[in-house]
From TrEMBL, chains A, B, C, D, E, F, G:
Boundaries of every Mechanosensitive ion channel MscS domain copy: 112-176
Organism expressing this protein natively: Halalkalibacter oceani
Positions of the Mechanosensitive ion channel transmembrane helices 2/3 domain: 70-110
Annotated family: Belongs to the MscS (TC 1.A.23) family.
One GO CC term, this protein: plasma membrane
Protein name, as recorded: Mechanosensitive ion channel family protein
InterPro entries, per the entry: LSM_dom_sf (IPR010920), MS_channel_1st (IPR049142), MS_channel_C (IPR049278), MscS_beta-dom_sf (IPR023408), MscS_channel_2nd (IPR006685), MscS_channel_C_sf (IPR011066), MscS_channel_TM-2 (IPR011014), YbiO_bact (IPR045276)
Length: 276, 276, 276, 276, 276, 276, 276
């Protein structure tokens, strides 16, 4: 009977050994295949990038090495845990150790995912197009490039802003339809408001007739405020996109001259003096 | 007995091999079916989108490729873990590796979910309707579109704001009922307050009679402040929605003219000078 | 013996197959029951909502479809994992994949839970009642509705604010008891303070006798500040709730007139000029 | 032998079925007991609350229904997972689904726990007592109630502030000991500083003798600043708690009169004019 | 043979039942021991606290009840899961349910741990000592008590600030060595700078000789600014800790008198007037 | 039969003991190999760093010791969990304990990963090059070094800023193309706007002809504002990168002189005086 | 046969009991060894700290007791879970309970890890050296000590700031190379700009010749602004580190005197008066 046991034990033992060796060999083969494919993929990506964006060979070298290393570390870790579990040992401790690093990476890299997700929808919903004038991520300017990770906006002062898409939550697109031109003109408390409005409206109508970029108005909409020293009248117009500033500048000049011509004063600050 | 063992072992072994092969074949078939269905679904979605929103073919191509790739990577990963576990190997290491990426994606994409959840309730609770004038996400304007992910608001200066719904926590809807018109008028410390109030209230009553957009008032409610150089009187009215600004402008003009007509001064800033 | 083995193997095999098939059938039945119940519940909820809130049929359609889809996806996922585990395969990979989506949803939807939890306590602790005048979530106004998810506050300018309850941390309820009316009156550095206080207190007493909304005071509590050009006296009263503004306006008018009547100056800003 | 097997199989099978049925029955009984106890507990809590806080029956109804529902959903979920695992199926998919909701709830409800934890220590460390004058959570006023979840503070203007304890991190308690009264008095650049200090100190000593709420000082501590037009002297006193404002008002009045009596000028702003 | 089976089955069955009953009894005993020890510990802690901090019996009652309840709930939960697993049922559902509450508690209580960890290092690194004058957590004052959870700071106006240690990140300790006294004195653009510096330095030297709390300087370090109407000279000294304000006050008085004595003007604001 | 059992038991027992001892020996060997390799790697890295960055030997010693210790702790922990699981004990409690530390480390170290991820893309997308003038992380200056963890920017005042890459979200690169020079010039309300524009444009054209760094303009684009006392004209030019400030300075000087030469006034602030 | 079974059962049972007892004894031994080592280590650390930092014995006692207690609690918990799992009971409930505390600790202690990680790189990258003048964590001053957890910075007013390293993200080091001295000087609109620049540059050259701490310049770089009442000229120099303030003071004094000597006016604010 103990003979039987020995045989059985021996057979099972040999079978076990054989299976372990087979599995280890399989794992090693899988490891080398995965590593070779991965490394080749990374190298290919970088050499393509080098040609396309003409980056310096040194910088490409640095980044490629970093990527290959990171990939290799991950692969080696997966390999070791598999081998350990083949030998029947419990890799929980090892995995717990790696989980710490993984957690840090997961948190650290979430920004990257946020970038791509936001970028995806920026493109999909056509919120931003190249050459649009937008306000996004606290920056004002004309869009030069919309990528999956970053959007490049050229500020009006010539600065090129690189904004990771995650920082672009609300987009204000100033290139989607007619824009408003708005000018506030002050007149004195002594002037007749109706007269001033008539004079300003006349000038507005003349400008509207001259300027084809004006789509609507300009109209004097009334008394916007009763200031310390002045009565403020507001003039509003609708203009072609991007023509709003030119129209505002024109309106300021022409309306000031119209008031001058009609002897309506644009008042300086006033103060009443009581001498003691 | 060892014969029996051998037979048993052999039988079990063959059975095991057969089962493994069967399972692998099943997994492969499931993989190809899932992949084919998924890819077709994605392509369908994008070609529909291309027709509806007339997006450029290039952009659709980019986004579709990205989606198909992401889907394939996920599918391949699921497939590999299943195959590994069929062979009796422990895929924990692999899953731990994937968990890192998953964690990053989960965190990165939570904004998207937030958008849809908020959007769902924006629609369900009718907080926002197209053409409402609202303040939401730090932006003022008229709603052009309420979607599950983004809300489009047209600012009064013509800008089109795209606001992800997650940024819309509190909504201030200015198109739900009558609005208040509020005007503060200053009179001099030397003028009789009762007289001034009577004059202003008379003018208010005349305006109320003329203007059908005024629903209540306007009334002079009393002395709102004792300023450095002026006594401030407040006038309040209820108007039809969106008529509040026109009423305020009218009130400012008419009340100023009423005070002028009654020789009540709107004072400039005063200062007492003590010469030394 | 091998006969016995075959029989045993065969029997176990057939039993296994039978059990698998039985379990799959059970799972399918459970799936269809769950789906049918869930769908009916969602439809019922929405059609009730449609009648109650008179929402447009189109919008209800959209939201209902989204809800049914979401429910179906979850159900299908649960079904697939159960079937996979019935076949003895390891669904860990699949679950890991789903966990990513789950994580995103869990994070994205936490705001919703926060809303309900806060809403529950807002109602339970009676912090807010309809028609209370409150400051909450950065908004001022009268409460129109307190729900489990959102609170609606009508601003004094007519705007309707929808505030998700999670944004309501501190609530300032201005409708719980008598309110304070506070007026600061300036007198000149040359005037006798005791005399001015006497004059003001006399006027205060007269107002207190006239106005039944005043519960306590008003009293001149003393010299609140020594300003650049004036000595500031503070008057405080307790009034009925919501009467504080009317009382303050009345106090300002009456006290100003009392000072005028007693030749006590409310001073303009002073400046000493040194000519060179 | 196959007979033996059949018997064995059959016996084990019957035993298994019996055990499953037994377990299911146990689970069902446990479910109904738990549900009945839970529901009764919730109802009891709410009816007690209704009597104590005289809440409207409608509101109690709403909250009670919500609580019972939430409790039932949780219980049903626990029951289903137990039944599923009794049948030998893998409830992982179901639990993963529930985990998503659980995660959302856990995150959403953490504020509640924060409230109770902070509230516990607020009470334990006696940081706040009813009737203390405190600054907490950005609000100033007298404490009306300290609860485990919220603290109620009555502002000086009559507003009742409800502050969730989690918003109370730092507490500034103004009712723990004597308070400081601080008055800054300006004198002219032309006045003798020593003389002015002597005059002010004399007045201070007189006030200290008269007023029993003053515990220390008031003392002129010296030249606090050399302003644009004035030399600023600072007077400091220690007073009984809550008497500091009355003492400051008294000091301002008396010190101003003391300076007047000694012909020391409190200067208006000065400016040198250079005419061109 | 079936006899054998029956025997075996029966024996195993009885053994199983016996083991289950034994385990349940063990669990019940462990539960009562743990509960009795825990309750006694909590009661002891609170009655000690009641004596030491003379808290009202009512408040102690409330907190003690809360603690005992919380402890009991946790113990009951642990007990139930153990009993369930003894009966061979899967407590995963129950644990998932509890995990939700646990998560909320874990997040809610992390502040508490933060307090203790920070408190530990505040004490260990001697950043704060009782009677130090510090700025921490946005509050200024003298430390009254440093605990593991909260630090008590007495503000200069008498307020007692309770600051949870987690809010104390950077500590600015003003009681660790000599302090700087800094005074800026303005002279006219017409005065000779070298002469003014000489006069001021002379006064500084005299003060330094008189005052033993001054450790270094005071020295006129030069022209700190060219203001609108004045040339600003800066004087710096090193003083004993907490003597800096008295020295600054003394410097202001003495330097002003020194300039007066030498006919150097401290200028009022200047303005050039162009009449039109 | 009991003999057989004893044999079997004994054999299995011995086999088990043998396997345990074998596994422990394997684990110990693996431990020492891993430790030796790890320590050598760390030492090598630090001694290389010491040579390259000429750090003091003491500091290197400190950091190296810290690294070796951290590595050893992790290794010992992994070793212990493996040994415990070899003995058939459940290391869950130990791992739960370690998980707490791991969690803290994972959260604490995520910033580090964020740095490297952001750094990777800063380099890859060429957002920043050495010697670029950029605004990033709230700091302005010229880039001195871009690393994977930190970026060094030299401020214009000579300060060297070390910015961890995670703090660099949006990068504003001022060295990518021509820059804008912008000058606002005020003229009096009494001057003729057309004449002033003509004079300024003439001067602009002369400057453009002289200065090769100007690429476009400068042009007077019109009336930018109607100020309290002045009409504001805006002049804009495009210049070579980094020449914008010099051009602006030149423009200010030349335009001021051009206006002087043509008797066009740059007005001082105006005020109307009403004597009473 | 049943005899055989009994024997077998009995043997297995006894073997099981023996193994359980053996494991428990092993666990108890391991527990006492671990506890003794841990306690000794903690005591050693603290008594060393007591000698080095001369902390009061009482404080050391408190901290040591806290550390030993925390260590004991963790050890006891690990011990209990191991014993429970030896008895074949499921410790999941217990671990879930502990996980809650663990989670809280993990979150609460992450700041500590952040400190050490940041501290490690502060030292490694030599961002900060003792005696550097830096701006970090919102504080300005000279570094006194850089530790792994906190950095001590001595403010210029004598305050000692303790900054946890996690609060130090960007470091601005003002002690790494030459610094810039920058002075803006105003001249009147009536003065000739070229003449003023010549006068200022002459003075600059003289100062540069005299002062060896000046490395470059000072140079008048041109018209920095056209102010309300003045033309602003900017002078820039490069100086030795920490000499920038002295150079700026010297420049202000010398340039003011140079302008005086050449009768170039530094203008007071101007205003045009229009009397009415």
């Amino acid at each position: 009977m103990s003979q039987w046991l020995n045989n059985w034990t021996e057979g099972a033992f040999l079978l076990g050994i054989a299976m372990i060796i087979g599995q280890v060999i399989l794992a090693i083969i899988a490891f080398f295949i995965a590593r070779s494919i991965g490394t080749r993929l990374i190298r290919g990506t970088f050499s393509k990038m080098e040609r396309q964006k003409n980056m310096s060979a040194g910088r490409v070298q640095t980044l490629q090495k970093l990527s290959v290393n990171a990939f290799s570390y991950v692969l080696i870790f997966v390999f070791i845990t598999i081998v350990i579990s083949i030998f029947g040992l419990n890799p929980t401790g090892l995995i717990a150790g790696a989980g710490v690093i993984g957690l840090a990476i997961g948190f650290g890299a979430q920004g990257l995912v946020s970038d791509v997700v936001t970028g995806f929808f920026l493109l999909l919903e056509k919120q931003i197009d190249v050459d649009d004038y937008v306000t996004a991520g606290g920056v004002d300017g004309v869009v030069e490039e919309v990528g999956l990770r970053t959007t490049q906006i050229r500020g009006f002062d010539g600065t090129l802003h690189f904004i990771p898409n995650r920082d672009i939550s609300s987009v204000s697109n100033h290139s989607r339809g007619n824009m408003r031109a708005l000018v506030d003109i002050s007149i004195s408390y002594d002037d007749n408001i109706d007269h001033a409005i008539a004079v300003l409206q006349q000038a507005c109508d003349r400008i509207a007739a001259e300027d084809p970029t004006i789509k609507e108005g300009p109209n004097v909409i009334g008394v916007q405020g009763l200031g310390d020293s002045d009565v403020v009248l507001r003039i509003i117009a609708k203009t072609e996109n991007m023509a709003q500033w030119a129209v505002e500048r024109k309106l300021r000049k022409e309306l000031k001259e119209a008031l001058d011509a009609n002897n309506i004063e644009i008042p300086f600050p006033h103060q009443v003096y009581i001498e003691k």
